[in-house]
């Protein structure tokens, strides 16, 4: 799987990590365009290959009254507008087999959520669209087990797979990133570290997932040092009022400084 296989992706010869970044969920057109424009300005400056991320719907929610989306077609149209406006590829997650063919008409990368990565029909449906498939490692799975998810994509006739680590749950209300898994998973496919979801604190008694955004740079730096191919970071200009995952998102104002530091670390690593 080569980054050059993704339409509209830029800076592929910069020897940088690539970045999947954007809001957790598409809340509206203005917010999506605002976030995309800011991230693209930063990634162009730093020569980071960039894919805009936004969920067109949220299926895995803590409560029945949690925000799930603004409407599937409306959100997918916004993702397409982001792509068309800024000439940038996009990624969204899918939850049902029928989502694969629909979302593939609008985005360049289909993401399989961590809780669903063992669902064979869903993985195969995503692979058969011909799009890149981003396989999020289940919080309950070992790094070694992800080779089977990658193999499902290959058996469906595609070699376009990534793996994304989003932490492992060793207790009821916290995640741990085991960096020993990064080189293991890189043997199977390019590997991404989902920095912000790794800092979730799920299963809170209030029914809203918590998080540790103060640890974002710590986890991201460790990922770069351990040669991850890409980073996944959710960001928002107003995390406190974001409709999904605000507790673990990075404030948009802090993104440029973080990425600047990470690019400097990557350059150092590349020169070792």
UniProtKB/TrEMBL annotation:
<dbReference type="GO" id="GO:0009103">
    <property type="term" value="P:lipopolysaccharide biosynthetic process"/>
</dbReference>
<dbReference type="InterPro" id="IPR006269">
    <property type="entry name" value="KDO8P_synthase"/>
</dbReference>
<comment type="similarity">
    <text>Belongs to the KdsA family.</text>
</comment>
<feature type="domain" description="DAHP synthetase I/KDSA">
    <location>
        <begin position="8"/>
        <end position="266"/>
    </location>
</feature>
<dbReference type="InterPro" id="IPR013785">
    <property type="entry name" value="Aldolase_TIM"/>
</dbReference>
<keyword id="KW-0808">Transferase</keyword>
<dbReference type="InterPro" id="IPR006218">
    <property type="entry name" value="DAHP1/KDSA"/>
</dbReference>
<dbReference type="Pfam" id="PF00793">
    <property type="entry name" value="DAHP_synth_1"/>
</dbReference>
<dbReference type="GO" id="GO:0008676">
    <property type="term" value="F:3-deoxy-8-phosphooctulonate synthase activity"/>
</dbReference>
<keyword id="KW-0963">Cytoplasm</keyword>
<dbReference type="GO" id="GO:0005737">
    <property type="term" value="C:cytoplasm"/>
</dbReference>
<comment type="pathway">
    <text>Carbohydrate biosynthesis; 3-deoxy-D-manno-octulosonate biosynthesis; 3-deoxy-D-manno-octulosonate from D-ribulose 5-phosphate: step 2/3.</text>
</comment>
<comment type="pathway">
    <text>Bacterial outer membrane biogenesis; lipopolysaccharide biosynthesis.</text>
</comment>
<protein>
    <recommendedName>
        <fullName>3-deoxy-8-phosphooctulonate synthase</fullName>
        <ecNumber>2.5.1.55</ecNumber>
    </recommendedName>
</protein>
